[in-house]
Design brief:
This protein is of the alpha/beta class. It is built from 15 helices and 11 strands. Helix 5 crosses helix 15. The mean pLDDT is 93.
């Protein structure tokens, strides 16, 4: 059994569609500096660094080399991972395991993206089968629209249910100074926004952002000494399939269902809706904030629309989801899922500012990407 590990510091940039004031290396340095400040450490206290971004989207190689100045990783062990949209949580998982293994005491995980200098849509489009899939699955929006259309037919969910999720997360982001989009919207405004691919509208969909995030993990003895209230990692779980888009299950998310089930088992959670205090979930579109709730075991299959309509996941509801505004308000791909882990950690540490959920002691963070890849973290105020 590995060592117990806590998160002791989090830093992220101010995210935007175009950070013209900073290069990729400078964005990394901004997040790293803020994480070190949050943990009251210097780069000399970091034993190893784990990094990730969507370098193949940006057509840039050897990022672990050119990013060294921003990372402060000169003469330190550096490990790089890339797993599509889940890169951020995968970076976080690797940071956690590097510490839990006993190889290093203090590990910094860093994810980033300069989306203003890349072509994400072209990269996703060309990963689809050119004969069978590309016409209908060019990019991320098509598959997300297809799965929600089928969920609507199967369970009676509506466009308005998704619009409620969009309004919730976008309005939550108004309390987050780091969010890319901080704009109050109504359900009616979401429904009236331009259609992208039925039933997904403009305000249902996430942006493309420039930004970076850094999270610092420390083994138990160091975490207790360095941080008054660490966010202890209760578990980290990964599940993924490799599929053609046409082979996916469209009315539920198998990898998320399996990952959350295992995470709950490891963390001793039997009723997640009641035992979790807050969630930071990777929801690239508001439609996912309806359909994927079933696969988080918050309800029976098809039960999510009722929970959405009851306000269960609002800031004043039974289980607040995405107090930060989530992916729909900020999406620097390589950092996106790591931001979910960092925001969940801040909730446990009581450092979430105006988006703090009072008394949060147990949090879940998720990542999604690749060919149906799901990551899940459970964090807690108590030792696992």
């Amino acid at each position: 059994m590995g060592k117990r590990v806590g998160i002791i510091g989090v830093g992220q940039t101010h995210h935007a569609a175009k950070r013209l004031d900073a290069s990729g290396v400078e964005l990394i340095a901004e997040a790293v500096t803020r994480a070190l400040d949050d943990a009251q450490l210097t780069i000399k206290d970091i034993d190893a660094v784990v990094i990730g971004n969507m370098d193949h989207f940006e057509n840039i190689n050897y990022v672990d080399m050119w990013a060294a100045d921003g990372l402060g990783s000169c003469m330190k062990p550096v490990f790089k991972v890339t797993t599509g949209g889940t890169t951020g949580t995968t970076v976080g998982a690797c940071g956690y395991y590097h510490a839990a293994s006993g190889l290093f005491d203090v590990v910094m995980a860093v994810g980033w993206e300069k989306n203003s200098e890349s072509d994400t849509q072209a990269a996703i489009s060309t990963c689809a089968n050119p004969t069978l899939e590309r016409d209908s699955f060019a990019g991320a929006i098509g598959p997300l629209a297809t799965e929600y259309s089928m969920y609507m037919k199967a369970y009676g969910a509506t466009e308005e249910d998704a619009a409620r999720v969009a309004a919730r997360d976008r309005n939550n982001a108004c309390n987050n100074p780091f969010a890319h989009i901080r704009q109050h919207v109504t359900v009616e405004e979401v429904l009236a926004s331009p259609m992208l691919s039925y039933p997904i509208k403009f305000l249902d969909m996430c942006p493309r952002s420039d930004g970076a995030c850094a999270v610092i993990f420390a083994v138990e003895e160091k975490a207790k000494r360095l941080c008054p209230r660490p966010a202890w990692v209760h578990c980290s779980v990964v599940r993924h399939d490799y599929t053609h888009f046409g082979d996916l299950e469209w009315t539920w998310m198998p990898t998320l269902e399996r990952a959350t089930a295992e995470a709950y088992r490891l963390a001793g959670i039997h009723d997640p809706l009641k035992e979790l205090d807050v969630c930071e979930l990777y929801l690239p579109a508001s439609t996912c904030g309806v359909k994927w709730m079933d696969s988080c075991w918050f309800c029976e299959k098809g039960g999510a629309p009722e929970l959405i309509r009851k306000g269960t996941f609002e800031m004043d509801g039974e289980l607040p989801i995405n107090p930060s505004g989530g992916v729909i308000s900020c999406n620097p791909i390589g950092a996106t899922a790591l931001i979910r882990v960092g925001e969940a950690a801040w909730q446990i540490m009581g450092r979430a500012g105006d988006r703090q959920v009072e008394g949060a002691k147990k949090a879940m963070a998720t990542g999604f990407g690749g060919c149906s890849w799901s990551d899940v973290f459970i964090l807690g105020a108590d030792l696992p």
